[in-house]
Write a structure and sequence with these properties.
By secondary structure, the chain is α/β, with parallel strands linked by helices. It has helices spanning 97-111, 143-154; strands at 3-5, 9-11, 16-17, 37-39, 43-45, 49-50, 54-56, 60-62, 67-68, 77-79, 84-87, 116-117, 122-125, 128-131, 136-139, 161-164, 167-170. It is built from two helices and 17 strands.
C-alpha cells in the first residue's frame, strides 16, 4: 500500500512503518489489515511503530516506543501505546528573538562556533551574516561558517542556501510543502 512522507521528516533507526497487519490466516479469525500511511511535513519520529490506515499531520513529534494506531493531528506531541496526543497545538511555536538568541548562544558556547551578535536578529560568522528573521546565510562562506551552519543544522536549525563562488546565494532546491499528504479514499 502507498506510503507518503512529507518534507523535513526524521525517523530514528527503530521506526517501523507497516502498511499491512497480516501474518496469520484471516480464515482462522486472525486480524488482517492493509492500508496506506501518510506522514506530513516537519515530523520527528525517533522510534515508533506506525500501523496501516494512519495519517500523521504536519509539525508533529511522536514519542519513542509509541505504537501509532490512529490518525495524529497536526501540531502536537503524541506518545504511548497506543499513541495518543499528549499536548495539542504546540508546534510550531513562534519564539521571541531573545529566546532564539539564547538558543543559538547556548549552541555557540557548546561548540565554539565563533558567532558574534551584530544586531537584534543578525549574527556574524567570519564574513558570513546569519539572519534569524529570514533564516538565511549571506556573505562569503568559509570553513568556520560552514562548520557553524552544519552544527546548527544538527540542532534542527536549517538555512536553505547554495554556495556559488564561495558566496552564499538563495537556494534553488525547490519550494516548501505546507500541508500533510492526503490519502485517497480507495473504498
Amino acid at each position: 500500500m502507498e506510503v507518503k512522507i512529507g518534507n523535513e521528516v526524521g525517523m530514528g533507526r527503530f521506526t517501523n512503518v507497516y502498511t499491512h497487519g497480516a501474518y496469520q490466516s484471516a480464515l482462522k479469525g486472525f486480524p488482517v489489515d492493509f492500508g496506506s500511511i501518510a506522514i506530513g511535513n516537519n515530523v520527528w519520529i525517533p522510534g515508533a511503530t506506525i500501523l496501516p490506515n494512519v495519517t500523521i499531520g504536519d509539525n508533529v513529534v511522536i514519542g519513542v516506543g509509541s505504537v501509532v494506531t490512529k490518525n495524529v493531528p497536526s501540531g502536537c506531541l503524541a506518545a504511548g501505546t497506543p499513541c495518543r496526543v499528549i499536548r495539542g497545538n504546540c508546534y510550531p511555536r513562534q519564539l521571541p528573538i531573545e529566546e532564539k538568541l539564547k538558543i543559538v548562544k547556548r549552541i555557540d558556547n557548546t561548540w565554539d562556533l565563533g558567532i558574534v551578535l551584530q544586531n537584534d536578529y543578525k549574527l556574524g560568522i567570519d564574513a558570513a551574516v546569519v539572519d534569524l528573521e529570514s533564516m538565511k546565510f549571506n556573505g562569503k562562506s568559509s570553513e568556520k561558517s560552514e562548520r557553524a551552519r552544519n552544527i546548527l543544522r544538527r540542532h534542527g536549525i536549517r538555512f536553505k542556501v547554495d554556495i556559488v563562488d564561495n558566496t552564499y546565494t538563495e537556494w534553488v532546491g525547490g519550494g516548501e510543502e505546507s500541508s500533510a499528504p492526503k490519502l485517497q479514499d480507495k473504498t
